[in-house]
Design brief:
The protein has 3 helices and no strands. It has 95 residues and is mainly α. 79% of the residues lie in helices and 0% in strands. The protein has one domain (7-88). The N and C termini lie far apart (101 Å).
Length: 95
């Protein structure tokens, strides 16, 4: 029976518990802090705007790659023409 709590010990422990008003005040402070933190988080509109920018950049990269492919083909045609012209005029041509 050593582990039983006496009435006096119980009453003393109850004094350490927070009151309803104290808990309510703490919850209000916590709620305000959480609202402030959540207000700093990105919103759906922010992600939508970011997605639009990324889509635009992806389009630019696609266009750039297509232009580079066309430029490569054009340079290859020019190089072939130069080689034919060099053979025709009997001038050595090396890259």
């Amino acid at each position: 029976m050593k582990n039983l709590v006496t009435k006096d010990v119980w009453q003393a422990e109850l004094q350490n518990f927070a009151t309803k008003a104290e808990l309510k005040a703490e919850m209000t402070i916590l709620r305000e802090a959480m609202n402030e933190r959540f207000s700093e988080l990105p919103r759906r509109e922010d992600f939508s705007r970011l997605l639009s920018v990324v889509d635009g950049l992806a389009g630019e990269v696609k266009t750039y790659n297509q232009e580079r492919a066309a430029e490569g083909a054009r340079l290859e045609r020019i190089e072939n023409w130069i080689k034919k012209a060099a053979r025709a005029v009997n001038v050595p041509f090396e890259l």
